[in-house]
Structures are given as structure tokens and as C-alpha cells.
Amino acid sequence: MDSQLAAKLAQMIRGTRRASLGTLQNGGPFVSMVLIAPSADLCNYYIHISRLAQHTQDIIVDSRVGLLFMEKDDGSADPQQLSRVSITGRAFEASSGDLDYSQAQSLFLERYPASAPYFTFPDFRLFRIKAEAGRFVAGFAKAINLTVEDLKQASQT
Q1: What is the mean pLDDT of residues 92-100?
Q2: pLDDT above 80 for 99
Q3: Do residues 18 and 36 lie in contact, with contact meaning Cβ atoms separated by under 8 Å?
Q4: Cα angle at 45 between 41 and 48, to 5 degrees?
Q5: Are residues 84 and 69 in contact, defined by beta-carbon separation less than 8 angstroms?
Q6: 152: Cβ–Cβ under 8 A, 6 or more apart, which residues?
């Protein structure tokens, strides 16, 4: 991936505050919206979600998930030209005893300070989505498959 595409990929992920989360529900797809905080290397994505939510119940049964980041559609361009990034991976509940929990919590709260009270609710949990692969569509006919190494490379831009 060239440096221009890597920079666009990193900017898109870092500049997006919400993503579509795909989970498996009774063997079929279920998509919802989540607030997302990417790690510095773009290989982990943190979500803070209620155990009462359907997507959380799905993750507990099957940790395989997908994330979709989309460029904002301002109505001025052909929507097929808008960039999008799909990330596949697995979601793991972060425990407050984990070494990186406080760092992940700080990362999330830095991005969403209004979420602080939710960290006191007993049903809310912090989950880490560990990226395994992805696909970056930088516009019409500009698509590339992504590896974890590609995400790390993009994070350096």
C-alpha cells in the first residue's frame, strides 16, 4: 500500500467516532452502531457496551465480529466514490484486572468524555476487538485487502 493510501486509511479510522458492528445472531448477521476508539497501531478497537444489548449477547456466544467505517457523505460526490474500511476480528471482554485495561479505558474516555458515568454502571463492559484482516475501498475500483501489518503500517502515517 502506498503512503497516500495508508494516510487516508489511518485518517478515516481515526477520524470516525462511530462504526457499524456486525455480529452473528442465531447463525445470521446483525448490524448495530457503536462508539469506537482505535488503538494507536490500528490493530485493536475498543467499544464500551451494555451486557443487555443484543450485540453484546451475540459476542458472548460467538466472538467473531466485523466493523465498518464509512467516509461521511456530504451529498457532493458520487456515493460509490466514498471510502470505506471493513475490519474483521474477534471481540474479547477486557477485565479491570488486565494490564492494559486502564490504558484502554483512558483512550475511550479521551474520545468520549460524556461516557464516564457508564463506566460505573454494572452492566457496561469494555470490549477489545482484535483485528485479523480487512478491506479498504478508497473509491470506485480502488480496493485492497488488508492485513494486520497493513494496519500497523498505516498507523505510522
Answers
A1: 82
A2: no
A3: yes
A4: 145
A5: yes
A6: 41, 42, 43
